[in-house]
Write a structure and sequence with these properties.
about 375 residues; alpha/beta; 7-stranded mixed β-sheet; 4-stranded mixed β-sheet; about 20% strand; globular
Length: about 375
């Protein structure tokens, strides 16, 4: 079980390796961030620690630390997470009596990423018609543009509704939105609506904070933030429970409800634990893997067989619920060489499992996207 503690923001931490003074805390922002972190700590029953605690052995059993870092582009803060323990800054202070600062390597979700980031670059490519979004295999599997163009004449005022039931760090949801970002001027409503669902409380906290900062950028007049705010929604919860709740509420007069049923359901469940070490994953995914405990496991780990059966059963239930909800298609991300979601590889066992099989797949070198047409 991963153990996470909460660290209140402090000027004794060097969260900016370049020493940019604009990233240092303002007093009112620091107070607001501390209040937010205490609320999360209370809600999730996490221990609140001080900067001095990190240098002691008292918190060595905690694998991750939830904290806050300055976010200059919004004039506020971002809830972030980093591995424990942090490292001591290698920079030497000019003042002999001044203690070295702790250097954190925090990660936070950004729903308006800069164009010089990997996600921002991908989003810009997708929104630029001339560059074409054909290189995104995810978008090929979803078929968003084809669906919108085929329904344009008959249903101009209807959104294409997509449920991302395993939101994670929201990267795939952002790629979905970027595929239609260049067409928003033509319609009075957003062409698509993406609803993210995340069941892990810590990851959900990062997403909810990203939504808070998105609203701030929207209020400051950012066009891209305004577009994303109109198209994106998020809630914490188990995917099966959320689908049931939205189904039960279908047809009510509550205008705040997410549209149901969805046209497309997207699933990106965490891949099975690896038996062997693979190539290094990106920083954000490595953090997500470690939080959700999908790191490499040993062959002789106790209970691995029972855990595998429980995981397969959960996958089967999730796929069945997604197929029942979606009106057009379900898309599932898988490792390129893995079995379809919910299958064991045991012919006798798989025959007795009544789950859908993919209609086709979109395949890359590392991953593939199984498509279940409805």
């Amino acid at each position: 079980m991963q153990r996470v503690s909460v660290l209140l923001p402090s000027s004794s931490f060097d969260t900016d390796p370049d020493g940019d003074a604009t990233n240092y805390w303002q007093h009112d922002v620091e107070e607001e961030a501390s209040k937010h972190l205490r609320q999360i700590a209370t809600q999730l029953k996490l221990l609140v620690i001080s900067p001095s605690d990190l240098l002691s052995n008292g918190v060595s059993s905690y694998t991750h630390i939830l904290t806050a870092v300055p976010c200059p582009n919004t004039g506020t803060y971002a809830i972030a997470i980093h591995a424990n323990p942090p490292t001591l800054s290698k920079k030497r202070s000019r003042e002999k009596n001044k203690q070295s600062k702790l250097k954190l390597d925090p990660f936070y979700v950004d729903l308006c990423p800069a164009s010089d980031t990997r996600l921002g670059y991908r989003m810009n490519l997708n929104s630029n018609k001339s560059s074409g979004s054909g290189n995104e295999l995810l978008l090929k599997a979803l078929g968003i543009k084809k669906m919108l163009s085929s329904e344009n004449n008959e249903q101009q005022q209807q959104q294409l509704v997509i449920y991302d039931l395993t939101a994670g760090l929201a990267r795939d949801s952002m790629i979905m939105l970027s595929s239609v970002a260049g067409n928003t001027e033509k319609s009075s409503i957003s062409p698509i609506k993406v609803h993210m669902v995340e069941r892990d409380p810590l990851v959900a906290s990062l997403l909810l904070d990203a939504m808070r900062r998105l609203d701030i950028l929207d209020s400051k007049g950012s066009n891209i933030a305004k577009f994303i705010s109109r198209c994106l929604s998020m809630e914490e919860g188990d995917a099966l429970s959320v689908l049931q709740r939205l189904s039960d509420a279908n047809g009510t007069s509550d205008m705040n409800l997410v549209p149901y049923p969805p046209d497309i359901v997207y699933l990106d469940p965490m891949f099975p634990p690896r038996k062997k070490k693979a190539s290094a994953v990106k920083k954000d995914m490595a953090m997500l893997h470690s939080l959700l405990e999908t790191a490499t496991v040993s062959e002789d780990k106790e209970g691995r067989e029972e855990s595998e059966k429980a995981r397969l059963k959960e996958e089967q239930q999730l796929l069945e619920a997604a197929c029942n909800a979606a009106t057009k298609r379900v898309v599932v991300k898988r490792p390129a060489n893995a079995l379809p979601l919910g299958l064991m590889g045991d012919n006798e066992s798989d025959v007795n499992v009544n789950i859908p099989t993919p209609s086709f797949d979109v395949r890359g070198n590392i991953n593939r996207w199984d498509v279940y047409c409805r």
